[in-house]
Amino acid sequence: MDSHVVSDSGRATERYLEALKTIITASAYDESAWRVIETAPLHSAQGFGGRLRLGLKNAVVRAFARRGIVLCKARRFSAEARELGRDWPMIGFTMTGKKRLDNTRLAVETVLRENVPGDLMETGVWRGGSVMFMKALLDLHGDRTRTVWCADSFEGLPPPVDDADGDDLSELGYVKVSLEAVKGNFARLGLLDERVKFLKGWFSDTLPTAPVERIALLRLDGDLYSSTMDALTNLYHKVSPGGFVIVDDYQQWPACKRAVDEFRATQGITEPLHFVDQDAVYWRRATI
Fold this sequence. Notes:
The structure is a single chain. By secondary structure, this protein is α/β, with parallel strands linked by helices. The chain has helices at residues 2-25, 47-66, 79-83, 97-113, 129-140, 179-188, 203-206, 225-235, 254-266, and strands at residues 35-36, 72-73, 119-123, 148-152, 196-200, 215-220, 239-247, 274-275, 281-284. Strands 5-4-3-6-7-9-8 form a seven-stranded mixed β-sheet, with helices on both faces. A two-stranded antiparallel ribbon has the order 1-2. The longest helix is centred in the N-terminal third of the chain and has 24 residues, at 2-25. It is globular and about 60 Å long.
């Protein structure tokens, strides 16, 4: 009788988590693959003709926006691309895809099972999907002691500090999500409570004095060299032995990879990198 109950409970847990991943990644909606047409700075176009075409497009987009109309380009939904986080969903709460959410689950459940001390933290949360998934896992496993920290400017990406810092996406509206919107996303799924904390501002301003004492899971999604280095420099020493460090953009953004490689080299970090998919990697801090 007991084993039957446990088995039913286990199946219910898996169904809940699979449904949650589907919601967070917007995988149930073909329209989530559509792309919102946004304005772009004129300097991003080449030549007079390119700037003229871009200027006309920007004027059309702004004219429709003033009337509350959003222009979209229809694209075919790919379950494989969404699984691997290869497309940016128009709707949904994360770009990471289901495979990276599974990696987050592995990390959370491991630190809970092994009693690795510390909170869970993400630097660069966008719409909040990955940290929402962390909070759901804590609730599911009955953990009432750990805090989930969400660090973000909630104003989009900063401009690169130089040409080697990474691509300039500071004007991209798609990545600009307000603090109020992220809180609302947590609340919609019943995940917002006092154990979810928000650090608003550029990492260089907020992370040096972040009031988190110990970290069991640190997930980095800052894209740029400077943002990645800010997170590692100010937070890595707080990661507990046995804790996880996940880097979302290691294989996709050369500037992010350079920051991670330089930090690991200068700090003498030799723990092996494990590859999650075509983008993300993680390592576990060595136990004493």
